[in-house]
Amino acid sequence: xxxxxxxxxxxxxxxxxxxxxxxxxxxxxxxxxxxxxxxxxxxxxxxxxxxxxxxxxxxxxxxxxxxxxxxxxxxxxxxxxxxxxxxxxxxxxxxxxxxxxxxxxxxxxxxxxxxxxxxxxxxxxxxxxxxxxxxxxxxxxxxxxxxxxxxxxxxxxxxxxxxxxxxxxxxxxxxxxxxxxxxxxxxxxxxxxxxxxxxxxxxxxxxxx
Length: 209
Ligand code: SAM
Description:
Blueprint: E1 7-12, E2 15-21, E3 30-31, E4 34-36, H1 43-49, E5 62-65, H2 71-79, E6 83-87, H3 90-101, E7 106-110, E8 127-132, H4 139-146, E9 150-161, H5 162-165, H6 171-182, E10 186-193, E11 201-208
Parallel strand pairs: 5-6, 5-8, 6-7, 8-9
Antiparallel strand pairs: 1-2, 2-4, 3-4, 9-11, 10-11
Helix pairs in contact: 4-6
Bound molecules: S-adenosylmethionine (SAM).
Residues 42, 66-68, 71-72, 86-89, 92, 112-114, 133-136 line the site of S-adenosylmethionine.
């Protein structure tokens, strides 16, 4: 897998780690400009680490759904272009606003990702990529509704959390249902379990169709 410009592998404490260049955010190890991307705390980072073909070259415009306090989206903003970060919980958005203070291309939005019409006036259209990590029921519906922001052949990079859909169901059965619904809006290109970094999560690379 080719890493996008701005994401590199560097030796840290004797092992190869993914790093990006930017201000540190969550106590991650740093070396000069470089900050380690802790893939145990980031589903997108795990997708990179596991070698999924995320099809990014760097500089893309991004809509990030489920930004929380900004752990992953801070790395995304380090290598991407304009990055709109949606999170509906007020407490983490306060942290996210601090993360954005150091990144002129990161725009935090205190919004519900199930209601894209509430931020359609702020987010630009024809975006290159949606990154989705929302811990909510209806993850396929969220991805479908937000496809309005994507360019015709825009990309979806999603981490599907089985337990957010149904805590008791077999994760594989949950993934099948989610992928079936996703296929109404996206062509699914690749899927992969995010274990051992994140249990009961499926990484998905898909293209809008
Ligand atoms: N992506 C983050 C990272 O890697 O740094 C972690 C995200 S956390 C697993 C999931 C987040 O989704 C939570 O912060 C939660 O508040 C948010 N979330 C859940 N439902 C949401 C919704 N409908 N709209 C916006 N955010 C939502």
